[in-house]
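Annex B. Sample input.
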Amino acid sequence: MTLWAKLRPYGMVAPAILVFSLFFIYPIFYMIYLSMFDWNFVSPTKAFVGLQNFQDLLSEEDFRKVLTNTSIYTILTVTLTTGLALLLALWLNKRNIFHGFVQGAIFSPHIISLVSISLLWSWLMDPEYGLLNWVIGLVGFGKLQWLSHPSTALVSLVMVAVWKGVGYNALVFIAGLQSIPADIYEAASLDRSKPWTTFTKLILPMLSPTIFFLVIINMIGSFQVFETIAIMTQGGPINSTNTLVYYIYENGFRFFKIGYASAAGVILLIIVGILTIVYFKLLSNRVHYR
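Annex B, continued. Sample output.
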């Protein structure tokens, strides 16, 4: 084999590796570099502070509140989105006009920008003129302060995330269900297997790769939430909806504490990386590939 033949595969993937390194690998290392400096984004000089930014972050009560908000938001969003999508997929796994229309309807929020969705839901959740309060008022409930009270603001953002994401997840589940061979259902029917037994012993194991994929992308997406918070709550009220990415944005581009924001970004990277590794280690052996 000639030298050109050996180098040819590397040459073909070199442009993709170059772009990936330029826009993904380099920013990560530069963020780690900036996290060790005190810099206001304007001054040409950077003061080296070592790990002081990390120490200040971990000792700050607001940052611990941000971590708690992010964890609650992620757990609720991933659990509700995945669970509701699976239920919808089981119902919509039929080939007819009605179910096809419903599939298209629930998928449509996925292709709408988060900015438009955030503006729409801000109006729906308006405490005085919003549609949601008008609806619950018809059944005798009082008006809720959806986005302006600490006890309901974060849950309201979770509702928006679930509404946007459940359609995409449901369609992925439907694709997984339709890939299950028909003879498996026939064998279960011949064995007179109960629906619950068929679901838990046959369908769920066959869907495990789909569940594995959706949980991991939903988890990473939930940690990166920004648009809905920036438009609907700006982290309030009383810091009750502030999450890691919005906290990074505030410190970096409102308060110009670039080193501090970079340190928070490094912590976000570490958290997502650890959770992803743990998730793969714990559950990868339980995924059944055909």
